[in-house]
Design brief:
With 313 residues, the chain is of the alpha/beta class. It is built from 11 helices and 10 strands. Strands 1, 2, 3, 4, 5, 6, 7, 8, 9 and 10 form a 10-stranded mixed β-sheet that branches. The longest helix has 31 residues. It starts with a strand and ends in a 5-residue tail after the last helix.
């Protein structure tokens, strides 16, 4: 059953310049405490999107609250929960912009986020861009471990470069490319972005990491949330590799290899952390027990998927 689709009502917020060729799509679920601030940041930027679509599902329909912010925002509400990929696809289906930018409801964009991300994508033909993801510092020790374990490849201190990884909470691509690639895989979360990126690269598109286009992620605190998320990351990492040939796919066919995947994972996260410079070296030492635990839990999730077909959703 499809929920109501109605544009938000009139508001007072207007930005100075609109990037009219760009639509920003925001998947959202439930209460979304950071959504109002995100929308205001997009509207108040020096260059704001020509169109903003909030694709919301589950309880706490935000349509009326969004209406008080601006009449330039369209809210799609679905009463039952949609995974992020399905929510993004639903928003993208009605988008009018030549470019589709995706950002999540639990991040805070820098003021120049959209113009910087769009500029990076337009510097080369057949390119899509994925921006950096910092931490908003909201989750304490375990939230920071979660952020680094998930987003270390997207940390803001890395140089701009072609890449394979990335995060759909900060990306932009041409609408025609998105549709030609079939959009996001709707049964995957996380991992839906990895599937899309793989299809786009197969189409001959260059994936570019735009470090200067930054958002900051609001991390969830607590050991329980950390353990659950790392397990799900492991499960879906295996699920994706059972569908797409990526580094680590061999471990999904020969399960004993999965037992030691925590070693290269921990090493990769630690190496990326150390590239953050001296400010992160002592912090990395303090975080090492949490990162080690997270790598073990991630490996358990990966192995569970390989051995039992546990979807972890």
């Amino acid at each position: 059953m499809v929920g109501s689709t109605r544009p938000a009502g009139r508001g007072k917020r207007e930005a100075s310049i609109e990037v009219t060729e760009t639509t920003v799509v925001i998947p959202a679920y439930g209460r979304c405490p950071h959504l109002p601030a995100l929308l205001c940041a997009l509207l108040d930027a020096a260059e704001s999107p020509g169109e903003i679509i909030v694709s919301h599902s589950g309880p706490d329909d935000p349509t009326d609250a969004v209406a008080a912010i601006s009449d330039r925002i369209t809210v799609l509400h679905h009463p039952e929960r949609l995974l992020a990929g399905a929510a993004r696809n639903r928003g993208a289906a009605i988008a009018n912009g030549q470019w589709l930018a995706f950002i999540d409801a639990d991040v805070r964009p820098r003021p120049d986020w959209l113009q910087t991300l769009l500029a990076a994508a337009r510097r080369a033909p057949d390119r899509f861009a994925v921006g950096s993801v910092g931490s908003a510092g909201s989750g304490g020790y375990w939230g920071l471990c979660n952020w680094l374990s998930e987003f270390s490849e997207q940390a803001p201190w890395h140089d701009a470069r072609a890449q394979i990884g990335g995060a759909s909470c900060n990306m932009i691509l041409q609408r025609d490319d998105f549709r030609a690639a079939g959009g996001f895989a709707e049964a995957y979360q996380p991992g839906e972005d990895t599937m899309l990126f793989s299809r786009l690269r197969t189409m001959g598109r260059e994936q570019w990491f735009a470090a200067e286009a930054r958002v900051d992620h609001f991390d969830i605190p607590g050991l329980r949330a950390f353990a659950r998320h790392q397990y799900r990351l492991g499960v879906h990492s295996a699920l994706v590799r059972q569908s797409v040939p990526l580094r680590g796919s061999l471990a999904t066919r020969f399960w004993p290899l999965a037992l030691v995947l925590w070693v290269p994972r921990l090493g990769l996260i630690t190496t990326r952390l150390m590239r953050g410079g001296p400010a992160w070296w002592l912090r990395g030492l303090a975080m090492s027990p949490g990162l080690l635990l997270g790598s073990w839990i991630w490996t358990a999730g990966f192995l569970a998927r390989v051995l039992t077909r546990d979807t972890g959703t």
